[in-house]
Amino acid sequence: LASVAAHQGMANNAAYCASKAGLLGLGRCVALEGAAAGVTCNSISPTWVETEMLKKFIDDEVAQGAPRAEVVAKYEASNPQGKLVQPDEVAGLVAFLVSDAGRAMTMEDFQVNAGSLW
Fold first, then answer.
1. So which residues are the catalytic ones?
2. Which residue of 1, 12, 49, 96 has the smallest Cβ count within 10 Å?
3. Considering only the top CATH level, what class is 4-112?
4. Domain positions in the chain
5. pLDDT, tens digit (0-9, with 9 covering 90-100), for 68-89
6. DSSP letter string over the chain?
């Protein structure tokens, strides 16, 4: 799993963004090197997903005095679809990519971004 951070910078998060961008390059090489043996390699770059990591960011803002509902609404509003991506939405893509139906999909990065650039 990469992140939209691999495609878009985020102030004060250079190491995170760089490491996610590195995954994209690594994946392209693995896909090429493994292709003859039937190995596929793809990455998925989600935006904010309702996970423990996001919950920690929300909790940190709440601890600073922000109302929880407003903080959650801010993250939801950052996606043009107006909702947070759910873990099962990412999992569904993973399931497809590792299935026989996804055999020809390789060397790609799939953004699960609810329309958001970040």
1. 16
2. 12
3. alpha beta
4. 4-112
5. 999 999 999 999 999 999 999 9
6. ---GGGTS--TT-HHHHHHHHHHHHHHHHHHHHHGGGT----EEEESSBSSHHHHHHHHHHHHTT--HHHHHHHHHHTSTTSSPBPHHHHHHHHHHHTSGGGTT--S-EEEE-TT---
